[in-house]
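Self-study notes.
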Amino acid sequence: MQGLFTVEKILNNNVLIAKSNLDEEVVFIGKGIAFGKKTGDQLEEQTYEKVFKLADAEEQEKYKQLVSKEEEEIILIIHDAIAKIRDMLGIELHERIHYALTQHLVLAIERTKAHTDIKNPFLTETKWMYYDTFRISETVIDYIFEKSGVRLPDAEAGFITLHIQSALTDERPLLLDQTEEFISRCVSYIEEKTERELSKESTSFHRFVQHLKQMFERSMTNDTPTEKKVLQMLKKESPVCYNLSRNIVRMVEKVVGHSLADAETIYLIIHLQRLIENK
């Protein structure tokens, strides 16, 4: 939706409601975008940088109500934080993030000011699965502290990460519903069977978790003769890693409802070998 728009209503200096030449209502969000504007003025989207627009009617209504209740300064800080997320990712985010994350951060700031204890039982698992996004969330927390003087607790990095992941797709990811608990169980299972604690800050561990996550999203199902030979060789060389990997693959198969290729077991064995060597 690009082109010329007519300003309908100013919500504050950074948010306005406009209509396209097709009579479609849009909410524009951008630093200073409404400054000096009045109802009936023309607005050309292409002339502004780092502007977000909400075209979905439901998201528009929720965001308009939120903006009307909250302090403009806090809303602007959060808007700039979302702009930073978009810049760091280098891609557009689903527009749901503007209401969902803004509302969450407004409440998080209020709870932190009130010294409310905020807990996140899946913080560690979230960091494992979405390591790069988690680092972006930590940057967001630093930015909010810099601009508002409010230091959000570590638990919020996990919540922000999940909001970002949800906004990366039009659908709620399967990972947010099932995989956190599964990966946690896999890690506990490996540590129990090997009688050692895995190095969870290592590159090898992050690669292992990413591979588990990808097995849910786009696992391979077709075998090749070469892979069968490689698997038999690894079974002889590393029986412990082989048995662990086979059992993990069987658990994934039960969840996704189909058989996985031998290649998935091979990759898991290699990841586990690296993890154990690191230890």
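Second protein, same conventions, sequence then structure:
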Amino acid sequence: MTTVIVLNGGSSSGKSGIARCLQAVLPDPWLTLGVDTLIDAMPSTVDDGIDFAADGGVSVGSGFRRLENAWMAGVAAMVRAGARVIIDDAFLGGAASQRRWREALAGIEVLWVGVRCDGAVAAGREMARGDRVTGMAETQAEVVHRGVVYDLEVDTGVNEALVCAREIAARVG
């Protein structure tokens, strides 16, 4: 039985909208936890944490990784305790990011979903939102998918979040 759905896509690709729709269409309660939740929870004083460049680039250091590893272990513990979780993430390290999640979620049934969106479409959403560093969406549109293996891929540039969520829900066993 699937107890974790991992949504991986670039900034403004539509992951959060899909996650909200999944919560509405799936029969059981699912928690949504995202990398933005982790970033918001971090104190600004983390040494070697996360930096957002003016051009939209994002770099993370060892301080961020240390807290991220603890967070991932905590998410896995919640699932092992009976929660179902939708993870909303952007694999900046591509396959290496997926490997970290695979290690944390070892022994748990996971549905890996790639959330694709053309970089120009995501950039338009980013501009409309106004809460992201300009350039993140276009920069991340493809890099987050490099070397990542999925069970399913959806495209929010072609389909609305609800359509994508229903397609994902149909794969949840």
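Instructor comment on the second fold: Strands lie at 4-8, 31-34, 50-52, 58-60, 85-89, 110-116, 152-155.
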